[in-house]
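Researcher: Good morning. I'm working through a list of sequences from a screen, and I'd like to move beyond sequence-only analysis. For each chain I'm collecting a predicted structure so we can compare shapes side by side. This is the next one on the list. No need for commentary yet; just the structure.
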Amino acid sequence: MPVTAERQLIRVGHSPDPDDAFMFYALAKDQMDTGRFRFEHELVDIETLNRRAFAGELELTALSLHAYAFLADKYILCTCGSSMGDNYGPMVVAREARPIEWLRGKTIAVPGTLTTAFLSLSMCLGKNAFQHVVVPFDQILDVVAAGEHQGRPIDAGLIIHEGQLTFADQNLALIVDLGRWWMAETGLPLPLGANGIRRDLGPEAIREVNRLLRESIRYGLAHRKAALDYAQTYGRGLDRAKADTFVGMYVNDWTLDFGPRGREAVRELLARGHLSGIIPKLVEPEFVA
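Model: Good morning. Structure tokens for this chain:
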């Protein structure tokens, strides 16, 4: 297209972690033709993105599927770009090994109350069955090890992202893997995050942005070394092997397309969240056509 043509701006928000960086590598580093669109990237923690989505600030944004339950009027779900925990997922860790029941009534550091991690823990233990303190996701292991945050005692931590691979480095013990708990409960993978496109872009632009995101994921998978080099810069101390493992956990066939089983998992998550009294309204997820 002519260099003078005005291109439509798509502001993209995603988490500063290796799997999201891997997905967006081709778009962020101009490795593909984006046609009439130009993309600007903002790397922000997922809870901040969830909160910002209520104002519809970003045309394309990572969303926790818990947050999506409150945002379905503003955003439609991309068919690609999901983070699915296939018998693994967010974890609760503590300074000593304990049974799950021990967590009830305890104070748990959490990465945000709109995260799917928080939703799944609340379903596992019961609504309001524990106290919580919101802590930036990349500080949770430290505050659990220290046993306090800003003077408040911390008994355990709900960890997401690369902390799932590194918690043992700080001599912390796993209490529950919520992806395994969910699989035992439902027989389904745990749908953690997705990408939402703002509805007011219109059907044609929505479909094209969804396609470009899928192509970016395909490019990363096809050029894994280069994409992993880029992704590792967001690994916060992960060595190459762990970064590769982490990306493999959350960028895979599920990421290219939810597929029927993935869509069923999203519906089940939202339905159970509603039945548990955590999500006030039953939401039927809507995906890009």
